[in-house]
Amino acid sequence: MSLDVLSQHHFENRFAEIHAFSDASSVGYGSAAYTRLVDIHGMIHCSFLMGKAILDLIKQTTMPCLQLTAATVAVRLARLIIQELDMCIDSIFYYTNSNILLVLR
Fold it and tell me: With 0-12 CB in 10 A as exposed, 13-18 as middle and 19+ as buried, what is 67?
């Protein structure tokens, strides 16, 4: 569903979450965001919302910098989605497979 369709979707949510994933490699980085909605009947609806990828990096960059950049993009995606959606988001979850980011907190 696009953001417009999701905003206009008229079913009663009990709970709405955004799940944002980020990852990086030596050739680029990317982030993707999904929504998880639980309706009043307990049915779970998951949908891809938005993604962003940068490939073929112009300059040589370290892996910790790429992982941090990918995580930053995930946060920006979630912020944009919250601004554009006309619904209450109860929780936001961020996922990465980078141990480097755990040290930087």
Answer: buried
Q: What is the CATH number of the domain that holds 79?
A: 3.10.20
Place of tokens 């040589």: 60
Q: Determine how many CB atoms are found less than 10 A away from the CB of residue 35.
A: 22
- For the chain, the domain total comes to 1
8, 1 contact by CB (below 8 A): no
Asked if residue 104 belongs to a domain, the reply is: no
**Structure-token match 């962003």, residue found:** 52
Tell me if 66 is assigned to some domain.
yes
**Any idea how long the chain is?**
105
What string of pLDDT tens digits covers the 105 residues of the chain?
455 555 555 557 788 999 999 999 888 899 999 999 988 888 888 999 999 998 877 888 888 888 999 999 999 999 999 998 888 899 999 998 877 666 655
Q: What is the pTM of this model?
A: 0.81
Contact 20, 94 (CB under 8 A): yes
